[in-house]
């Protein structure tokens, strides 16, 4: 009961706008169900359905108009709307959305032409991107029309999407756009759609950013996106989230796959934008479970948790994963844990509670079923079907200090996925079977920049033995600092005097270092 009340309180805070922290965007978006085939009626109707189905009471408050509304530009460069789809312009649509107590979102492109003009042959999308119109469009979208959110694609920033046939620099384009938008509506929510994770610069510009290809309503797509998100926890935080793309719940996946899809989006603190035709979902036989899933407040509370933490991998066995994150209280006794089985067959899964820093008797709540299970001590176990996930809220008697910090949970300054990291010389995460967690940080040091654990927690502070584990040779070039102060290493070990609370541990070098596996802490003997 206590957890149910805390979830309700959280939603009251979110709905009232009283929360100080910016949590992931929730709402409905037109692209997945309709692509460019939208209209004034379609958008207004879905805003009405969000209210009628009481999705807004669960936090879904943004109604986002994606590609398809464009009607070219006039002789002064001003955007026009599609004469058939939006004959009355966008203002009546925005006003209708706002009259319902909802928020209105819009779409543009960071380059010259839209994705719809390329892939849907929508000629009205040619020349309507933000290229050379940043301030003009900002005044139109936010000053005149009053939009609250914008998704910015990048098809027009590629050779195929502009008349100059050049690949535009994403960082440069989005930086220019953000400055223009802030001049009109400071801090407006921006979703950066550059598909793959663009680089650490994105956290200073976007409220969220895509980190994968477009989603499709099939398991292979959902599974791939989950795998791409597994090691991005270091790059998410309040007002800055990895966007796993729109929700395909109820559009062709099995029930267990739908649960994995929605549940993992919540564990990873991704924006939750419903991508289906709500009219079909409302009336389709056998789809009631999908609506119930989308309205599961206990799962949504994980996504909207004020800590804004993305779950990280605590254990891997084959293609099964145990993920964990703090909820409600940072470094408290309450954590969310997901057992993710991406294999095809049933798997018996388990995690020793000490490996997720919990001790004593632990209360267990199944968040899919929204019911309490028997308390556990020592180990949490479950049989998980193929393609399925089980998500639990654990409340322990005691919180332990984390002993092993995997490199794949650390932040890397040059990390990006737009180009081949080996060719670019940027740091990246690499699968290595004999590594502690099966993944290492590669190409750290020199051009690849540092690797940083930004939150190495010590409850009381004080001296601690530290050991850095690497894969490969060349460790003599490894350098280490803690809270900005250089720490002399003996081999790859040192005794460090940590401060109470969070500490920053940085690994760096003048040249490329061996692959970094993990950081291991132990009490001074």
Key features of this structure:
525 residues; alpha+beta; TIM Barrel; Jelly Rolls; eight-stranded parallel beta sheet; six-stranded antiparallel beta sheet; 13 helices; globular; disordered N terminus
Structure, explained:
This protein is of the alpha+beta class and 525 residues long. The chain has 13 helices and 29 strands. Strands 9-8-7-6-5-2-1-10 form an eight-stranded parallel beta sheet. Helix 8 (219-229) packs parallel to helix 9. The longest helix is centred in the N-terminal third of the chain and has 15 residues, at 2-16. Mean pLDDT is 95; it is low at 1-18.
Mean pLDDT: 95
User: What's the CATH topology name of the largest domain?
Assistant: TIM Barrel
Distance between the termini: 44 Å
Structural class: alpha+beta
Helical proportion?
10-25%
Would you state the CATH class of the largest domain? Alpha Beta
Low-confidence stretches at least 5 residues in length (pLDDT < 50)? 1-18
**Strand fraction:** 25-35%
Report a brief summary of the structure.
The protein is α+β, with helices and mostly antiparallel strands and 525 residues long. Helix content is 23%, strand content 30%. Helix 6 (134-144) crosses helix 7 and helix 8 (219-229) packs parallel to helix 9.
How are the SSEs ordered, and which strands pair?
Elements: H1 2-16, E1 26-29, H2 31-34, H3 40-52, E2 62-64, E3 70-73, E4 79-81, H4 91-99, E5 103-109, H5 115-119, H6 134-144, E6 149-153, H7 170-184, E7 189-192, E8 208-210, H8 219-229, E9 241-243, H9 255-267, E10 272-274, H10 278-283, H11 288-294, H12 297-303, E11 312-317, E12 320-326, E13 334-341, E14 347-352, E15 358-366, E16 371-376, E17 379-384, E18 389-399, E19 404-406, E20 411-412, H13 421-424, E21 428-431, E22 439-442, E23 451-458, E24 462-471, E25 479-482, E26 485-486, E27 493-498, E28 501-508, E29 515-523
Parallel strand pairs: 1-2, 1-10, 2-5, 5-6, 6-7, 7-8, 8-9
Antiparallel strand pairs: 3-4, 11-12, 12-13, 13-18, 14-17, 15-16, 15-18, 19-29, 20-23, 21-22, 23-28, 24-27, 24-29, 25-26, 25-28
Helix pairs in contact: 3-4, 6-7, 8-9, 9-11, 9-12
């Amino acid at each position: 009961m206590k957890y149910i009340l805390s979830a309700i309180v959280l939603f009251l805070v979110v709905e009232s706008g009283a929360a100080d922290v910016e949590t992931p965007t929730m709402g409905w978006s037109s692209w997945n169900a309709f692509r460019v085939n939208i209209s004034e009626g379609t958008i207004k109707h879905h805003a009405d359905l969000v209210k009628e189905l009481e999705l807004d009471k669960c936090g879904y408050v943004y109604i986002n108009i994606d590609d398809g509304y464009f009607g070219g530009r006039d002789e002064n460069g001003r955007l026009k709307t599609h004469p058939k789809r939006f004959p009355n312009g966008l203002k009546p649509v925005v006003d209708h959305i706002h009259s319902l107590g909802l928020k209105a979102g819009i779409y543009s492109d960071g380059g010259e032409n839209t994705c719809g003009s390329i892939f849907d042959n929508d000629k009205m999308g040619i020349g309507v991107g933000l290229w050379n119109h940043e301030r003009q469009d900002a005044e139109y979208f936010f000053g005149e029309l009053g939009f609250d959110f914008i998704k910015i694609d990048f098809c027009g920033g590629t050779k195929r999407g502009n008349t100059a046939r050049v690949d535009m620099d994403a960082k440069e384009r989005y930086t220019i756009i953000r400055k223009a938008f802030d001049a009109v509506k400071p801090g407006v929510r921006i979703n950066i759609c550059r598909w793959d994770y663009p680089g650490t610069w994105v956290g200073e510009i976007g409220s969220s950013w895509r980190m994968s290809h477009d989603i499709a309503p099939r398991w292979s797509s959902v599974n791939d996106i989950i795998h791409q998100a597994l090691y991005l926890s270091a790059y998410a935080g309040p007002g800055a989230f990895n966007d796993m793309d729109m929700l395909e719940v109820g559009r062709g996946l099995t029930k267990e796959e739908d649960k994995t899809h929605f549940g993992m989006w919540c564990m990873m603190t991704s924006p939750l934008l419903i991508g289906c035709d709500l009219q079909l979902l409302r009336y389709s036989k056998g789809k009631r479970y999908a609506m119930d899933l989308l309205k599961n407040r206990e799962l949504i509370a994980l996504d909207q948790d004020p800590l804004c933490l993305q779950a990280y991998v605590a254990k891997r066995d084959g293609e099964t994963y145990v993920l964990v994150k703090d909820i409600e209280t940072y470094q408290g006794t309450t954590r969310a844990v997901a057992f993710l089985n991406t294999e095809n067959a049933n798997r018996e899964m388990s995690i020793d509670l000490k490996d997720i820093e919990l001790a004593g008797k632990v209360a267990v709540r199944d968040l899919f079923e929204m019911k309490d299970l028997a308390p556990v001590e020592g180990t949490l176990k479950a049989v998980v079907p193929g393609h399925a996930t089980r998500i639990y809220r654990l409340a322990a008697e005691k919180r332990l200090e984390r002993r092993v910090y995997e490199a794949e949970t650390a932040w890397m300054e040059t990390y990006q996925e737009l180009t081949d990291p080996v060719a670019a010389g940027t740091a990246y995460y690499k699968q290595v079977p004999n590594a502690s967690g099966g993944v290492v940080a590669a190409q750290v040091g020199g051009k690849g920049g540092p690797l940083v654990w930004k939150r190495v927690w010590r409850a009381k502070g004080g001296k601690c033995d530290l050991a850095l584990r690497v894969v490969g040779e060349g460790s003599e070039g490894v350098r280490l600092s803690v809270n900005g102060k250089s720490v002399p290493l003996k081999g790859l070990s040192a005794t460090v005097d940590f401060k109470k609370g969070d500490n920053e541990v940085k690994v760096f070098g003048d040249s490329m270092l061996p692959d970094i596996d993990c950081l291991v802490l132990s009490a001074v003997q």
